[in-house]
Design a protein that fits this description.
The protein is α+β, with helices and mostly antiparallel strands and 77 residues long. It has helices at 12-28, 40-45, 69-76, and strands at residues 2-7, 32-37, 53-56, 59-63.
Length: 77
């Protein structure tokens, strides 16, 4: 099971990334957990300076933008 976190304080782009990530997971049929992290201290512990960010299995795979659904699927494969 994969562990996926969306890092962001709750801005519209952060919420969009949460929704798009869940859609990509559903379409790919991935067994995982998705957690929305809004705590600034936890976000910075990943070295992220721009949100939203996507963390997959403890590794930051993207930050500072909302990727397309196809790009998200590629990151999650």
């Amino acid at each position: 099971m994969r562990d996926i976190k969306v890092l962001g304080p709750g801005c519209p782009k952060c919420e969009e990334l949460v929704q798009r990530t869940r859609q990509a997971i559903d379409e790919l049929g991935i067994d995982c957990t998705v957690e929305k992290v809004a705590d600034i201290m936890e976000i910075t512990s990943y070295g992220v300076m721009m949100t939203p960010a996507l963390v997959v299995d403890g590794q930051v795979v993207m930050s500072g933008k909302v990727p397309s659904l196809d790009d998200l699927k590629e990151m999650l494969r």
